[in-house]
């Protein structure tokens, strides 16, 4: 369990090339984590919540709660086979990011977006075929939802994939695979049209 607070200064709150306007906010928040490491079953969970409060009256509409929830677990079916389940949910606002969001490519937000929600769910089955060859199969689902954003469409996708890997060192693998993803966009405002 943890509590924290941050003061954030954004020199260009609206992300414009001219007439830049700065914004200052205070972000109090907290987190709670659970973790279990058993012989065959392992799981972890992390919830982070915060509230952004802006100082300027004309940016009061940007004040909002933000939530992040990460869950994961794995189970060793037998000594050669492991199943893993992972879920990441984000309910964020405007352009305030964590380093994890940047790493995961979740920085496609717009200043005029009221809310942005994204959920990524992945199921992975890993099997050691030999001492150096591995097989992984995955199934995943993702949804992205924007509230009041005229520039983006909601989307959902499902996918499956498989790959074969050769372990040539303890932490190094080389392989190949195939994947199929079906992605659907809601509305007729898809950006790449």
Walk me through this protein's architecture:
With 193 residues, this protein is mainly beta. 3% of the residues lie in helices and 64% in strands. The chain has one helix at residues 99-103, and strands at 2-10, 23-37, 41-54, 64-78, 81-92, 115-128, 133-147, 155-169, 172-185. β6 and β7 (133-147) form a beta hairpin.
- Percentage of helical residues? under 10%
Strand order of the largest sheet: 1-2-3-4-5-6-7-8-9
Mean pLDDT equals 81
In this structure, how is the largest beta sheet organized?
9 strands, antiparallel
- Please state the CA-atom Rg, rounded to the nearest Å: 21 Å
Structural class: mainly beta
Q: Rough shape?
A: elongated
The portion of residues forming beta strands comes to: over 45%
Q: Report the end-to-end length measured between terminal Cα atoms.
A: 46 Å
Low confidence ranges: 95-99, 107-113, 188-193
SSE string, helix = H, strand = E? EEEEEHEEEE
Count of DSSP E strands? 9
Number of helical regions: 1
């Amino acid at each position: 369990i943890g509590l924290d607070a941050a003061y954030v200064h954004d020199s260009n709150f609206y992300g414009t090339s001219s007439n830049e306007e700065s914004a200052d906010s205070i972000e109090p928040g907290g987190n709670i984590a659970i973790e279990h490491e058993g012989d065959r079953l392992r799981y972890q969970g992390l919830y982070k919540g915060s509230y952004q409060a802006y100082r300027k009256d004309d940016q009061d509409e940007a004040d909002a709660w933000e939530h992040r929830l990460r869950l994961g677990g794995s189970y060793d079916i037998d000594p050669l086979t492991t199943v893993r389940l992972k879920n990441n949910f984000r309910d964020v606002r405007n352009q305030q990011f964590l380093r994890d969001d940047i790493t995961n490519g979740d920085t496609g937000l717009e200043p005029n977006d009221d809310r942005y929600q994204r959920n990524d769910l992945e199921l992975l089955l890993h099997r050691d075929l030999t001492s150096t060859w591995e097989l992984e199969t995955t199934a995943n689902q993702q949804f992205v939802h924007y509230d009041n954003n005229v520039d983006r469409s909601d989307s959902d996708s499902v996918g499956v994939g498989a790959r074969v890997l050769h372990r040539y060192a303890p932490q190094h693998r080389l392989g190949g695979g195939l994947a199929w993803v079906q992605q659907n966009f809601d509305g007729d405002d898809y950006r790449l049209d």
